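WARN no homologs supplied; continuing
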Amino acid sequence: MSEQSVDSESGAPVISLSVVKQNIALTGFMAVGKSTVARQLARRLKRRFVDLDRAIEKSAGLKVKQIFRQKGEAHFRHLEKETLARLLCQQGLVIATGGGVVTDQQNLDLLREKAFLICLTASTEVLLRRAGKGANRPLLRGPDRKARIEELLTQRADKYASAHASIDTTDLTVDQVVEKIIAVLNTES
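OK structure emitted
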């Protein structure tokens, strides 16, 4: 059961989940909109927003692309695992995860246990457009970025499908995605 109040700015219902301690985590491929949606969702739910990649950067003192370049993907994944575990010891967060966090089964299990995990999806064409030129996307380096996106989506499909819920963002605005998430949370609470 959830309590509803009205947002003073928009007049829209604001959901306050009765399971206040439960974290909400968004996963999905890079450029699907996890950070933007999570930030807006956190505002609506009056929760703290955490971007996992920014938390990693803060603790490492390096940007994600620098970690990949200087220390490699394996080191980044190690930092990601540590940071995620530390965050999930807290309660009431809205967390935007990195797109590859669920490729580690322990991360996925922890997310499913300590958060309501929602996977955001979008078509390959939309992901390619949203990713831009990919200068800040180390995993998209190479001549055929569309093929690389399709390859990674195929590799991660089963992991993404393990989320508690999934929402296709292809033709939706950020506010529409947030509304869909709130509707899902209302059915779960």
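The domain at 2-174 is CATH 3.40.50.300 (Rossmann fold).
OK
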